[in-house]
Every structure is written in C-alpha cells, then in structure tokens.
Amino acid sequence: MKAVVVTRHGGREVLEVQGVPEPEPAEGELLVEAEAIGVNFRDVYEREGGYGGDPPYVAGAEGAGTVVETGERVAWKAAPGSYAERVVVPEREAVPIPDGVSSELAAAVLLQGATAHYLATSTYPVQPGDDVVVLAAAGGVGRLLTQIVKLRGGRVFAVTSSDEKARLAGEAGADEVLRYDGFAERVRELTGDGATVVYDGVGRTTFDESLDALRPRGFMVLYGAASGQPDPVPIPKIQGKSLYLTRPQLHQYTATREELLERTRDVFEWVRDGKLKVEIGGRYPLEDARRAQEDLASRRTTGKLVLLPRGAS
Fold it and tell me: pLDDT for 19-34, tens place per residue?
C-alpha cells in the first residue's frame, strides 16, 4: 500500500511516498481503510524533529475511514501512521461517525473540535453572559471555540492579526473583533472590569496581556504556545486579582473512552445539525503531502487541510 514516510528529520523534502507492507492489527486494534486524513501542525513539528519518534516512520495521526472487517465508519485523533491508505487504529481511539457527517468533515473536525469542546465545557464551562476572549480566533481551534462559546451563551471577544482573519472571526460569530496591540485595555473598556475567561493558544507573546484582560477571579486558560512558552509566572502576578491559571491538554480531557465518546458525539451532532461550521481549506491527494504541509506551515490557507488517499476531487 502507499504511505507517506518521514525518512529523516528535516524539511518537507524528507516526506516520501513509498510502498510499505499493509499494517496488521493486534488485539484491541482495527484495520481501517482511510478516506480522509487530517493535516496538523503536530505533523510538521514531528517531521522537523521537535518531538515524536525517530525516523523512518509513517507520518500523521488523525483521520477517518471504514473499518475493513465491519464496514463501520470511524474517525480518530491519535493513531500514528495515518498518512496511509490503510491505518491501524486502537479500538479505544476509534469513534463512530454518524450519518449526515462525511468522512472528510469528520477528519477535519475531530482533533480541533474535541479541543474546543473541552476548553469551553470543562476547563472553564462557559455560562450565559460570560465575557470570553479567544486569541488566534481565526485559526482552526479558534473558530470552533468561538462557535461553541456562542452556543453556550457567551459573549466572544475575538483577537486576530489581520483584516482577513477579522472577517473569519466575525463569520464564526464573534461579538467584537480586536487586534493584538492593546487588546487587554480594549477588553476592559468594553466589559467594565475585564473578561471572565481568556483562551490563549499563542503563549509567550500574548501571555501577560491575556492576564491583564481578566477581571478579578478570572480564568486564564493557556492551551497552546504557538509563539513559545511563557516565562515562569511569579505568584504576585495572579495574586493581585485572585486569578485562576491552567495549562490543559486534550489527552487528559479524553482520559476515558466514555469521555472521548461524549465529546466527539457532541461535536459530530453539532456539525450534522449545522450548529458547528467546519471549513475545509484544502484537499490534496496523498502524494501531495509535501505541498499540504508546506501550505499549512506557511499559513497560506484557512480552514483544515485534508489528504485524500483516493485522490482529491
């Protein structure tokens, strides 16, 4: 079968389409015919050597397809070797795709949708009337998070870096769209005493201002660090307003099979019912994995990028 192999750490040229043996599932695993594969920054970081295993290995971890033995459609967010025509998926990670949701949409929304779900429903459960700041609001998680916050009755202050990204955040339902420069002061002006919660996936360059944007007893949720990790936080920085600070991770919010199914069921139902809009920003044949990762890393696209083993239409 065809698969995209990371032959060594480096640039996109280390990705090679090769013929490899079909994987064999062990007990507790499923062999799945892949129909759509999610392309994520994690894939780029692993290829570059930021983390992950030693090459050679088949790239990718997210996708959707049909179980060879049963014909059931499933999606997954954590099955190494997903840039391939067939993928071995742990049974615990395989979540059913409901009728009315395509495999493409399932692969495009699962990882980022589950992340947005746990942030808005568990890390800080948004309540009606809450003032919520979403940084990188035009990104994959940001747009889904904005929509889920609105579903829960929150008021979204979206922070973006350009006119085009401001437009995307507005289309996702943001009540106010702000730029990064001085966003904390603007949030305090609009709310009176600051935001209830800030969801910050940027990190070092925004962390201090995110804290400043919060009201007393507000929640600082640092769920990513696209600009690098923030400096260590002196206790007085959060003591002054009795702030809450957390650094959550998805795997700890899908620690049980039941919790994974609950989150993904909500996400897929919202997609099916038109309550959660997912944009697919690019469809690529498996052979074009290099181009897909290059487009993602250069931020030339909006929406989720997917690889299609059977070819892009």
Answer: 999 999 999 999 999 9
Q: How many Å apart are CA 244 and CA 238, to the nearest integer?
A: 7
Number of domains present in the structure of the chain: 2
pLDDT tens digits for range 154-166: 999 999 999 999 9
68 neighbors 31 (Cβ within 8 angstroms): yes
Which pLDDT tens digit goes with each residue over 24-81?
Answer: 999 999 999 999 999 999 999 999 998 888 999 999 999 999 999 999 999 999 999 9
Q: What residues make up the domain containing 218?
A: 127-247
> Quick one: the chain helix, strand, coil %, rounded to 5?
35, 25, 40
Q: Say whether both 106 and 189 belong to one domain.
A: no
Q: What pTM value is reported for the model?
A: 0.95
DSSP 286: G
Is the Cβ–Cβ distance between 34 and 87 less than 8 Å? yes
What is the predicted pLDDT for the residue at 53? 87
134 and 239 in a single domain? The answer is: yes
What are the start-end ranges of the H helices in 54-139? Answer: 103-118
Ramachandran sector of residue 60 (left: φ over 0; alpha: ψ -120 to 50; beta: rest): left
In a domain, 148, yes or no: yes
Place of tokens 């971890």: 61
Residues 231-241: what's their mean pLDDT?
94
Can you point out the beta strands (E) in 125-183?
Answer: 131-135, 155-160, 176-179
Neighbours of 215 (CB within 10 A): 18
**Do 53 and 34 have their domain in common?**
yes
CATH of the domain at 28: 3.90.180.10
Helix (H) or strand (E) holding 293: helix 289-298
